[in-house]
């Protein structure tokens, strides 16, 4: 009987792990490139100005930067505090549903700061 219980626990743990991976992969990620026009350190939010590829119109997008967002400049990991207004950035983000758009990865392309 104990082997049966151990097997059931293993199967359940495997199922939980797979569901967790599927949930993360289920988030539709989008990418945007533009200029960083505002940084709100209190709200941990950035505003990116970009040109819409279809219409050509300029627009802005507010994106939450969480503690697990990976931020890089070149090959170095940096923090939100290292970023400056007017920096060119590329942001991979997803819609969290509850708190809005959340950044998964930010590449600060201001290589002059290296």
At the fourth level of CATH, the homologous superfamily is: Copper binding periplasmic protein CusF
Q: What is the 3D shape?
A: globular
Sequence of strands across the biggest β-sheet: 3-2-1-6-7-4-5
Q: What is the beta-strand fraction?
A: 35-45%
Number of helices: 1
* Integer-rounded radius of gyration: 19 Å
Count of folded domains: 1
- Give me the secondary-structure category: alpha+beta
How do the SSEs run, as a string of H and E?
HEEEEEEE
What's the architecture in CATH terms? Answer: Beta Barrel
Total strand count, please?
A: 7
Note poorly predicted spans: 10-24
State the share of residues found in helices, binned by percent: 10-25%
The main β sheet shows up as:
7 strands, mixed
Mean pLDDT: 83
CATH class: Mainly Beta
Tell me the span between the first and last alpha carbons: 62 Å
**CATH topology type:** OB fold (Dihydrolipoamide Acetyltransferase, E2P)
